[in-house]
Amino acid sequence: MAFMKYLVPALAVAGAAVAQGDSCKGPKTIENPGDASALASCTTFEGDIEIAAKVPKGPITLEGIQEITGSLTCKGAQNLTSLAAPDLESIGDTFLLSGAIELRNLQFDSLTEVGALNFEALPNLQQLSFTKGVSKAKNIRISNTDLANLKGIALNTVGDMEISNNLHLKEADVAQITNVTGFASFSANHEELKISFPNLESALNMTFRNVSSVEIPSLKKTQGLLGFYSNFFEELAAPNLTSTGDLVFADNSELTNISLPILETVKGAFQIANNTELKAVDGVPKLKTVYGALDFTGSLEKVELPGLDEVRGEFNLQTTQEFNCDALQKEVGRVGDWVCKGKVANPQTKDGESGGNGKGNKPTGAAVPLNIPSGMTMMALIGGALGFAL
Fold it and tell me: Which residues, given as ranges, of the chain have pLDDT below 50?
């Protein structure tokens, strides 16, 4: 009997522990605030947590949980007004919010690490309340929100990064990022969007569309595409850039100056097309080699390439202005097919696309399509697309 006296409480404690352990394993669907409160004893939740689409109107708060090993997702919860997890530090897989049209408050004071962050169709979300800052994430996608800035994103390295169709987004200061290992794309946000990557040193692929300012003072190289399409800045400077893949400036209606003072190698095509205010290309004095085509069209009056030794693809320059092609040909080293024409009414890119008479337009909620010549590489084709899906 004495043995039973101690055995029964021990079994009860063990049973409670097992029950608690089961309650902290997923998948788990949150259908109301009570379901969220039931997880408050779970320091670590093993598996996925989903906020149900038919959750009742009001807030959902996940108290107590410090780690979710799987994903935290919410798709189509149109009545959700607030989502909070004050103690949550990490989400092992994806943090997905989609179609929560009434969501106005997102409070994650302790969150610093996610596998991937994907926010889309959140028309009333105006700020990211990530108090400590998300410093680790493989991929970031933020699309169709009401955000005015990206405060709370504090990454050092990111894979794919898409920021698109956020019509009130005016600031994208991602100062901590030093490396982009995938594809970074900015498109169809507010026309006054200013993008600052002060510490970015290397990237795989980057495209910028419909922005008023791009700062990349520390960028040294990109392996793939570096593309600027339909932007509104007057100058683009990359003082430390030495090498890139495809390099494209197209339909930038206010661009007057390109400054790439130590750029030596373009390991793809180098295209300048339809930048109607750009009269001179004289800011690439160290450029030595273009692996693909060199394709300049527009209203150019002066092109200086004193260091250019080789263009392995076609050299195509067509301008509406009077131009001394003979002088340029003497300056340039070995090229493939040579085409140089001045006083052309409708300058054509090397693949026959118009490259001189259009004007860039302000965004109207959707990115402006751009025709990329078929001779460009696949990376350039991707860069000209409306957006980049992760």
Answer: 3, 7-20, 357-390
Are 143 and 164 in contact, with CB atoms under 8 Å apart? yes
> Can you give the residue ranges of every domain in the chain?
28-154, 220-357
Segment 45-59, tens digit of pLDDT: 999 999 999 999 999
Whole-angstrom distance, CA of residue 149 vs CA of residue 137? 18
Question: How high does pLDDT run on average in the chain?
Answer: 88
Whether 299 and 319 have beta carbons less than 8 Å apart is answered as: yes
CA distance 284 to 308: 9
Tokens coding 209 = 């569309």
List C-alpha distances in Å: 216 to 138, 155, 167, 197, 258: 21, 16, 23, 5, 13
Global pTM value: 0.85
Query: Three-state SS string across 169-222, please?
Result: CCEEECCCCCEEEEEEEEECCCCCCEEECCCCCEEEEEEEECCCEEECCCCCEE
Determine contact, residues 281/306, Cβ cutoff 8 Å. no
Model confidence pLDDT, tens digit, residues 85-95: 999 999 999 99
